[in-house]
Design goal:
Blueprint lengths: L7 H8 L3 H9 L18 H11 L14
Length: 70
């Protein structure tokens, strides 16, 4: 089976986030780094996109409200 590869622009469109958000997630190691082509450009597989979507859609517990009365 041959993997389909996507450019950063194509991946961003599929994931629905901004370029800045994606690069911040890479920088802060929220998502694993992806492969690069011989020119150093990131290339995304379907699996990479699913992994990033999984992180994007992850539910977090609500933060404690410091101002709640009680």
């Amino acid at each position: 089976m041959r993997d389909n590869f996507f450019s950063t622009k194509e991946a961003l469109k599929k994931i629905g986030i901004s370029r800045n958000t994606l690069f911040l997630w890479f920088k802060h190691r929220k998502i694993p780094e992806v492969r690069r082509d011989r020119n150093g450009h990131r290339i995304f597989t379907d699996r990479d996109i699913r992994t990033i979507l999984s992180y994007k859609n992850k539910l977090l517990p609500p933060k404690e409200n410091r101002f709640a009365k009680g």
